[in-house]
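Hi support team,

I've been running sequence recovery on a batch of backbones for a student project. Most finish fine, but this one hangs at about 90% for roughly twenty minutes before it completes. I'm not sure whether the input is malformed or the queue is just slow. I've pasted the structure tokens below so you can try to reproduce it. Let me know if you need the job ID as well.

Thanks,
M.K.
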């Protein structure tokens, strides 16, 4: 039984990792662009935002590509979906920071 549980958890971890596989990764130019929008932006914050987004917002549907929406649309979508994702405070801010940095211009 314990073996079975371990197998299920291992599979869940693999699926979890795959959910964010196609999302844009954070490069130096992205950090510079982010800092123009959010003075507190750092590479670590963007990487965390990407990870939280793929984990929390990819549970019910594939996480949408950031470039499919404008920064304003992301603000609305995150506000609307955060309750479903049980996302609050700092973690919610990190997700929005990541999405708006990589949003459609
Ligand atoms: C508990 C399940 C669940 C979670 C978690 C979830 N969503 Fe959704 N999402 C849905 C469903 C269901 C829809 C279909 C449209 C609707 O019901 O509003 C949707 C639709 C969307 C859409 C399309 C809406 C549109 O009008 O284009 C976006 C964008 C979106 N979600 C973003 C997010 C983000 C960002 C997060 C994380 C903060 C998130 N979702 C977490 C269930 C979820």
């Amino acid at each position: 039984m314990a073996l079975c549980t371990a197998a299920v958890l291992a599979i869940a971890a693999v699926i979890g990792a795959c959910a964010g596989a196609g999302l844009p990764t954070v490069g130096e130019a992205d950090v510079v662009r982010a800092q123009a929008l959010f003075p507190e932006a750092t590479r670590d914050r963007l990487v965390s935002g990407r990870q939280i987004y793929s984990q929390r917002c990819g549970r019910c549907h594939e996480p949408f590509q950031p470039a499919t929406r404008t920064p304003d649309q992301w603000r609305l979508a995150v506000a609307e979906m955060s309750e479903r994702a049980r996302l609050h405070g700092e973690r919610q801010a990190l997700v929005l920071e990541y999405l708006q940095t990589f949003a459609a211009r």
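--
Follow-up from support: It reproduced on our side and the slowdown came from queue contention, not your input. Residues 56-57, 59-61, 64, 77-78, 81-82, 84-85, 87, 95 surround heme C (CB under 6 Å). No action needed from you.
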